[in-house]
User: Which sequence fits this backbone?
């Protein structure tokens, strides 16, 4: 018989995916240009041309065996070295290639990081609002994900509730800053307070509590935002990264785990990830993509469009009377809905061809997410629809 | 604390990997050209030039969003369709795109296939000699791998011992033909007998017993070998494929599962694989590689060198008095060692710069594997070393 567990998962479809499919269907009726689809976080800006050029150069100059041969199970050493050096330059760290494990994007990074520092039944805490895929990511490792309720004042950490939930069973804390869906960056004060509390509890409980820092939006920062590197604040940190957003390469599945050299067993964790990968069918990201990314490791796509879009949306939302924390980065914004049930609110918005995602699956009911990684022209065209929606449905 | 399970796995290094590392070290002393390294199954023939040309065309003609955007979680529909059509043409099947799940090579395929048709604690049977990585592949899913002892007469299935082990707890049978390490192809008689026995036991036990058919060497067949497609013989078959060997692309991690349309729940299994992937950090092989492979789906690298190498080695081994089944395909040969302990035999061979892998980790003590996916010139140069080794150590 087929597996009951995975069969039963088929019933729970992703709300984001359903809305995105609705938008695609509606697009067939009225032309997708007229659907204001804020559902999916699929980057719209192109990969840097240097990446494409590097790929062409590799394909025309290197031998097939050099390009397409097996990668060692931890990743190609020269690639890992370049990534370590780039992180050291930018964040004043002292990584070597032995602290870098190449992964298939952030999803692959989290799959390995969680398995490397938890035993089945251990708890992993995360903070609402949070990326809903954390549930399958963590649940299927055998660890238990628990969600600390949001601090909707400023979307920093709700420390009161966090401390209550930070029991002896907690092996790791999973954070995501810049945050999907709020767009908020945790401040230096927040990260320091988090580090202090975890140090205290590590001592009290007599075991490590690791930070697994999910950082795919690390490079998408807006004016005035602080570029915080979590590992600078806390030794037992595993930084999970993906080039999906910074290089606009989501389909190429390339990222890494960087284990803080001062982390407990830092010399073992990367090798352990190689063992984990044998059981989950991972066996490294593609060799060619590893080699190409290593050549553009300090570049990003031109992401200024995201800040332009954010400002257009934020100003309009405030003008229309929404409560909304101004994002510090990412390509998401997370305003409060105009009625208590954000599901109803988002359902009504569909009549105006506005595709908004209710905050419930992010652990933050009453709010909604807009992913504005779309053309600025489309954002502009969506503003009258947003206004009409609010005026008509909520009499504002 | 870091995970005990994965930490303890660090102690158990792969014998193949250790020998390969030894060969590389020795190569620094005497030039790698003079090390007769038969340890690793890393294809030596180049990828077809059509693949490289397709990659160049894609990079220069398609938009970055088309090339590098997220792939749907089951794979790109047009790619899955082309693979289904190719299998239908070649093996008289009736797959649609809905029966194809894109994976990161055969390792990814097995990771998903086993999870989709087993519950934790279920048994999976395989047949010695077998690829040693099956142990971590299966063990870490929660299922239990049990190995049916070899039939060293002809390396077909040992049906007497198989039937004894085929208890009610067996949920799946994992087969690998053409076989690593024996190079043997299971005959039509063997596969039919296997299918008949499984049908009988399915009825007796009242549940399905799936065949998971690991087929990365499917296209590497030598003169006279029968091109058997397992799914033609047994409905409940999940075929696990990789382009690593047929296209010489091992580093690009691209393959698929093809679920027989007549398989129980065939309409669900591919979708279930999409759910499984959420928990193991898989999220599809790279978009660009998917698109490129779809354009060369009926091609293979020029693999005639493998048959030439096999014939050179086989003739020499027979001349020197070895007992050896002539391979039907792959790039492996699996002779009987000249003393009972193949570990000692292989250790002695090192003195002659011959890197041979003992059969113990393949579940077949007393035999040894040679992976001859190397230059034919090097094979020729190795023959006097092989002769000297045998003459000197075994007085033949």
Assistant:
């Amino acid at each position: 018989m087929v597996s009951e567990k995975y069969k039963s998962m088929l019933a729970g479809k992703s709300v984001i995916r359903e809305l995105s499919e609705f938008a695609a269907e509606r697009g067939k009726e009225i032309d997708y240009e007229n659907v204001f689809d804020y559902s999916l976080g699929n980057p719209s800006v192109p990969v840097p041309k240097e990446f494409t050029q590097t790929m062409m150069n590799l394909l025309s100059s290197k031998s097939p065996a050099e390009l397409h041969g097996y990668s060692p199970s931890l990743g190609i050493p020269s690639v890992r070295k370049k990534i370590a050096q780039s992180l050291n330059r930018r964040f004043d760290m002292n990584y070597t290639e032995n602290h870098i494990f190449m992964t298939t994007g952030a999803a692959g990074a989290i799959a390995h990081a969680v398995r490397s520092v938890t035993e089945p039944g251990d708890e992993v805490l995360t903070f609402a609002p949070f990326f809903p895929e954390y549930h399958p990511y963590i649940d299927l490792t055998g660890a238990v994900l628990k969600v600390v309720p949001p601090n909707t004042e400023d979307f920093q950490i709700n420390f009161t509730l966090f401390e209550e939930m930070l029991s002896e069973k907690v092996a790791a804390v999973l954070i995501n800053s810049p945050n999907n869906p709020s767009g908020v960056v945790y401040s230096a004060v927040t990260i320091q307070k988090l580090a202090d509390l975890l140090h205290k509890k590590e001592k009290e409980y007599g075991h490590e509590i690791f930070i697994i820092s999910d950082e795919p939006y690390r490079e998408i920062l807006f004016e005035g935002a602080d570029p915080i590197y979590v590992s600078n604040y806390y030794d037992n940190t595993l930084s999970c990264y993906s080039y999906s957003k910074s290089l606009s390469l989501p389909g190429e599945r390339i990222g890494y785990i960087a284990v803080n050299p001062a982390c407990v067993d830092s010399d073992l964790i990367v090798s352990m990830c190689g063992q984990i990968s044998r059981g989950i069918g991972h066996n490294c990201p593609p060799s060619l993509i590893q080699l190409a990314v290593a050549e553009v490791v300090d570049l990003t796509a031109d992401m200024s469009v995201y800040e332009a879009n954010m400002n257009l949306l934020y100003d309009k939302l405030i003008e229309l009377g929404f409560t909304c924390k101004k994002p510090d980065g990412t390509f998401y914004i997370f305003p409060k809905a105009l009625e208590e049930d954000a599901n109803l609110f988002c359902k009504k918005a569909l009549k105006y061809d506005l595709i908004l995602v209710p905050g419930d699956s992010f652990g933050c009911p009453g709010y909604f997410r807009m992913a504005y990684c779309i053309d600025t022209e489309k954002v502009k065209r969506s503003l009258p629809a947003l206004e009409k929606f609010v005026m008509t449905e909520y009499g504002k």
